[in-house]
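>> received
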Amino acid sequence: MKQYKPTTKSRRAMLGYDFSGLSKKKPERSLLKSFAKQGGRNSSGKITVRGQGGGHKQRYRMIDFKMNKFDVPAIVKSIEYDPNRTARIALLNYKDGERRYILAPDGLKIGDEAIVSKKTFVKVGNRMQLKNIPIGIEVHNVELDPGKGGQLAKSAGASIQVLGNEHGYSHLSLPSGEVRMVSERCMASIGKIGNAEHGSIVLGKAGRSRWLGIRPHVRGSAMNPCDHPHGGGEGRQPIGLKHPKTPWGKPALGVRTRNKHKKSNIFIIKRRRK
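>> returned
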């Protein structure tokens, strides 16, 4: 982590990356893709997600979440920064000359070898089927459906623990505390995602939020009654409701929104709440 000199009040508590573990600054050009920012607006130009807009110009790095290049060894060429995600990314150079980006797990270094196979060695960076991973091992970039690509544990410091295999399903303990069943034919990468110190970042000033594309957020109690259920009143007032609500009048803060009749509910052994 990088500590800034307290030249201003905002800089006194500011924390950022020192980028000491990165190997190069320029990304692989063949794996770059440009994309236009939407600013929280849909195809009609209407704002559907509030608080988004602006931000620094970025180019998307094509990440290989499927990792479907089986039994071809690859060498880690570089560990790079990705502005589109909290995790670091690693550039793999396969034996046949192809290059791909993957999520960089903690402990993966330049020059290490990684391979994707149905069954291989339990080593950081390798990827295999869940049924062949020993109990208690931490994994990341886990599939929910075989061949669909990783959907679970893809952010900085995230990992999933394998609890066991039974009747064709693997029992996984997710970062949220939920225990879920996933087909044992799904693929998972060994290790946990690196850059775990991301949670310690302190932006320090409003300008850094704007660089990230985050616009100012206004409290509902500071609005008028016509704009928010919490608004209105002379001076500072409580919200005047038993429970808080969204700007559209729906219950907020802690209300379960998952569909009770969702088909995948049968795969959840333990909810993240007691």
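>> The longest strand covers residues 74-80.
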